[in-house]
UniProtKB/TrEMBL annotation:
Natural source organism: Corynebacterium pyruviciproducens ATCC BAA-1742
NCBIfam families: therm_gnt_kin (TIGR01313)
Homology family: Belongs to the gluconokinase GntK/GntV family.
Gene Ontology molecular function terms on file: ATP binding; gluconokinase activity
Pathway(s) served: Carbohydrate acid metabolism
GO CC terms, sorted: cytoplasm
Catalytic reaction equation(s): D-gluconate + ATP = 6-phospho-D-gluconate + ADP + H(+)
Broadest EC class assigned to this enzyme: transferase
Protein name per Swiss-Prot or TrEMBL: Gluconokinase
Length: 159
C-alpha cells in the first residue's frame, strides 16, 4: 500500500499523513525532508519552485515508497506530471488530496511557525494545482473539518 497525502501548502499533509500511517500501522515520511537545501532556500526566499526543481524531489518521494511494501508520504504532488514521476517508481500509489478554499489554506499557513513556506507562495501553488483525473486512484477530502474526520475519511478511502 503506497499512499501520497497531497495538496497545496497548509492543507495538513504532514498532520494527516502521520496520523493516517499510525492508524494503518505503516511507515510515514514527510516529503519536505527529501527536498535539497537549494529548494528549501528558494521557497524560503519566496521564489516558487520550477518543474525542474521539483523533478528530483518527486523521484525521491516515489523511490521512498518503492523501497517498502507499505508507506505514507506527505508530498504536494500538485500536477499530473508530478504524480506520474512518483508513479514511475511506485506504480500503485493512491493519492489522498486534501483540499480547501484559498482562505482556509491562507489562515493555516499564516498560523504556522518555523516552516520555510511563506504565504506569498500560496498563489503559485494554487495556480500549479491540477485536479486528479478519473484514472488516478484517489480521494478528494475537504479540509474544513476536524483532523480526526479527515483522517477517518482518508482511512476509509484507502481500505
Amino acid at each position: 500500500m503506497h499512499i501520497v497525502v497531497m495538496g497545496v501548502s497548509g492543507c495538513g499533509k504532514s498532520t494527516v499523513g502521520c496520523q493516517l500511517a499510525k492508524r494503518l500501522g505503516i511507515e510515514y515520511k514527510d516529503g519536505d525532508e527529501l527536498h535539497p537545501k537549494e529548494n528549501i532556500d528558494k521557497m524560503r526566499s519566496g521564489t516558487p519552485l520550477t518543474d525542474a526543481d521539483r523533478e528530483p524531489w518527486l523521484g525521491l518521494a516515489g523511490q521512498w515508497l518503492s523501497e517498502r511494501d507499505d508507506g505514507v508520504i506527505a508530498c504536494s504532488a500538485l500536477k499530473r506530471s508530478y504524480r506520474d514521476i512518483i508513479r514511475k517508481k511506485a506504480p500503485n500509489t493512491f493519492f489522498v488530496h486534501l483540499h480547501g478554499t484559498y482562505e482556509v489554506h491562507l489562515e493555516r499557513v499564516q498560523g504556522r511557525e518555523g516552516h520555510f513556506m511563506p504565504t506569498s507562495l500560496l498563489d503559485s501553488q494554487f495556480d500549479t494545482l491540477e485536479p486528479l483525473a478519473d484514472d488516478e486512484p484517489s480521494v478528494l477530502i475537504d479540509i474544513d473539518q476536524p483532523v480526526e474526520d479527515i483522517v477517518e475519511a482518508a482511512y476509509q478511502a484507502v481500505r
